Amino acid sequence: MPIATPEVYAEMLDRAKANEFAYPAINVTSSETLNAALRGFAEAESDGIIQVSTGGAEFASGTKVKDMVTGAVALAEFAHVVAEKYPVNIALHTDHCPKDKLDGYVRPLVAISQERVDRGLNPLFQSHMWDGSAVPLDENLKIASELLDLTVKAKIILEIEVGVVGGEEDGVAHEINEKLYTSPEDYLKTVDALGAGEKGRYLVAATFGNVHGVYKPGNVKLRPEILKQGQDVVAEKLGLPAGSKPFDLVFHGGSGSLLEEIHEAVTYGVIKMNIDTDTQYAFTRPIVGHMFANYDGVLKVDGEVGNKKAYDPRSYLKAAEQGMAARIAQACEHLKSSGRMIAG
């Protein structure tokens, strides 16, 4: 199927919310990892989200070029072509973008999509994330409001972060402390600034102990009830029935999370869960296995010629794609909860 249109993406998110499941949002940095993500969603018979961080986009442009917009556009254009061969809906998203990179990443990409929409085409990306976790909340929401005006016009959905995700990703690092938990006041300020959908749709990456990086299950102290508290306080403010979920929530920093914690978070309105560390390992592990198993083939040991079939990148990238795809399919299964994420 073609990359999701704005209407299809909105329907995907609505379906997740109504049926209490979440889409894995898979970070990619190359055509190889993007192919693996597409394959994984197809094998799971699931729609999904593929996303590109600032660092991932810079890498994709080439280590000599190092231009975030060039890399993001290249991956998105590649996805628009290749995704048509798969029987699932895929949305394209850009991950964490801090304040100092907005003018060099998100704003130019929104402008590219606006130009496409002005010509009667669909936007290049379906959503973009503004990560304002490093600035005061009032400034975070002021910038978010300005970006929301732009994304609505370009038929794009905005994702914001309210709170702080601990650990480190793409050079953005935060301490692991009490700031990892979004407060009820933070939720209320968010809806005051951005509305409840009347100003445009947005996703909220609220934090409840999330941490980026590699942690064993049980080592991350998640409190999913923080999400329910936020939904409840905003529902009350808006006069909505008890149990309503006014926010579309995003789960960042899922490494080390227990499955029951993931499922609980999904029941509170999480419809998107970012996955990066696990799929990086799933991609790299088969390559390591290939190199160890074919040591004398990938190296010209003792003056020998090696084995071209062993050091041809296709020989090990094929296994890497398969390994990452399998991990993504597993993630789709874990995030089904009580609903189904089958391609719509």
Automatic annotation (TrEMBL):
<feature type="binding site">
    <location>
        <position position="131"/>
    </location>
    <ligand>
        <name>Zn(2+) 2</name>
    </ligand>
</feature>
<comment type="function">
    <text>Catalyzes the aldol condensation of dihydroxyacetone phosphate (DHAP or glycerone-phosphate) with glyceraldehyde 3-phosphate (G3P) to form fructose 1,6-bisphosphate (FBP) in gluconeogenesis and the reverse reaction in glycolysis.</text>
</comment>
<dbReference type="InterPro" id="IPR013785">
    <property type="entry name" value="Aldolase_TIM"/>
</dbReference>
<feature type="binding site">
    <location>
        <position position="213"/>
    </location>
    <ligand>
        <name>dihydroxyacetone phosphate</name>
    </ligand>
</feature>
<feature type="binding site">
    <location>
        <position position="252"/>
    </location>
    <ligand>
        <name>Zn(2+) 1</name>
    </ligand>
</feature>
<dbReference type="GO" id="GO:0006096">
    <property type="term" value="P:glycolytic process"/>
</dbReference>
<feature type="active site" description="Proton donor">
    <location>
        <position position="95"/>
    </location>
</feature>
<feature type="binding site">
    <location>
        <position position="96"/>
    </location>
    <ligand>
        <name>Zn(2+) 1</name>
    </ligand>
</feature>
<keyword id="KW-0862">Zinc</keyword>
<feature type="binding site">
    <location>
        <position position="212"/>
    </location>
    <ligand>
        <name>Zn(2+) 1</name>
    </ligand>
</feature>
<protein>
    <recommendedName>
        <fullName>Fructose-bisphosphate aldolase</fullName>
        <ecNumber>4.1.2.13</ecNumber>
    </recommendedName>
</protein>
<comment type="similarity">
    <text>Belongs to the class II fructose-bisphosphate aldolase family.</text>
</comment>
<dbReference type="GO" id="GO:0004332">
    <property type="term" value="F:fructose-bisphosphate aldolase activity"/>
</dbReference>
<feature type="binding site">
    <location>
        <position position="161"/>
    </location>
    <ligand>
        <name>Zn(2+) 2</name>
    </ligand>
</feature>
<feature type="binding site">
    <location>
        <begin position="274"/>
        <end position="277"/>
    </location>
    <ligand>
        <name>dihydroxyacetone phosphate</name>
    </ligand>
</feature>
<keyword id="KW-0456">Lyase</keyword>
<keyword id="KW-0479">Metal-binding</keyword>
<dbReference type="InterPro" id="IPR000771">
    <property type="entry name" value="FBA_II"/>
</dbReference>
<keyword id="KW-0324">Glycolysis</keyword>
<dbReference type="Pfam" id="PF01116">
    <property type="entry name" value="F_bP_aldolase"/>
</dbReference>
<feature type="binding site">
    <location>
        <begin position="253"/>
        <end position="255"/>
    </location>
    <ligand>
        <name>dihydroxyacetone phosphate</name>
    </ligand>
</feature>
<dbReference type="InterPro" id="IPR006411">
    <property type="entry name" value="Fruct_bisP_bact"/>
</dbReference>
<dbReference type="GO" id="GO:0005829">
    <property type="term" value="C:cytosol"/>
</dbReference>
<comment type="pathway">
    <text>Carbohydrate degradation; glycolysis; D-glyceraldehyde 3-phosphate and glycerone phosphate from D-glucose: step 4/4.</text>
</comment>
<dbReference type="GO" id="GO:0008270">
    <property type="term" value="F:zinc ion binding"/>
</dbReference>
